[in-house]
Hints:
Strand content: under 5%
Mean pLDDT: 82
Number of strands: 0
Largest sheet: none
Low-confidence stretches: none
Number of helices: 7
Helix content: 55-70%
Amino acid sequence: MEMSEDINMEDYPTEIHDYLAAFEKSLDSVDEMLKTMMSVSRSELLQKLDPLEQAKLDLVSVYTLNSMFWVYLATQGINPKKHPVKQELERIRTYMNKVKEIADKKKASKLDKGAASRFVRSALWEPKPENELTSKTPAKGKKRKMD
């Protein structure tokens, strides 16, 4: 369904036509995504995910719903910045950051302390004892002339 079919371009300024077309495309994308998510039962979907992925799915879902409510409030002339939905979105973002930290820690490679200490030890300069220095000094020999 194209926007030109539903709305006469004379009903709004032509400068915003591109913005409205992009908004309509975004709404169609959200609609398709929701249809996809709703086609699978929640319990069936959660069974396929590990606990961290379940938390991510829950957070994205609740953040999306609250964001859509934010947009709804704005379309109704209500300032969403002064509505409790703002605090809810901030709370959800806090939990999203916590889940991200956990995921990052899980992905981080484990440090092999033994290998790390060997690497550091071999990279550091260690002065040699004096008896080693005197025994390994090259003997003075005759120098060859280069022809």
